[in-house]
């Protein structure tokens, strides 16, 4: 597969420091995205294999 050549220079907005990981993170993960990740994670429920013991969990 041939890929076009392009420059690898990353340009950040002037008010963003490349040494500030929280700001870099929040540029891509907005509060709405975090809320969606939390909701989807909380919606996932693993069903027990044996319905007679609904609270037992396997050690993984």
Your description of this structure?
0% of the residues are buried. The chain is mainly alpha-helical and 60 residues long. The protein has a domain at 14-44. It is built from two helices and no strands. The protein is elongated, with a radius of gyration of 21 Å. The model has no long low-confidence stretch (mean pLDDT 82). The protein is 35% helix and 0% strand.
Q: What gross morphology would you assign? A: elongated
- Integer average pLDDT: 82
Radius of gyration: 21 Å
State the assembly state of the protein chains: single chain
- Pick out the low-confidence regions: none
SSE ordering: HH
Biggest beta sheet attributes: none
Task: Give keywords.
mainly alpha; elongated; single chain; 60 residues; 2 helices
Q: Can I get a quick summary?
A:
The protein is mainly alpha-helical. The chain contains two helices and no strands. The longest helix is centred in the middle third of the chain and has 13 residues.
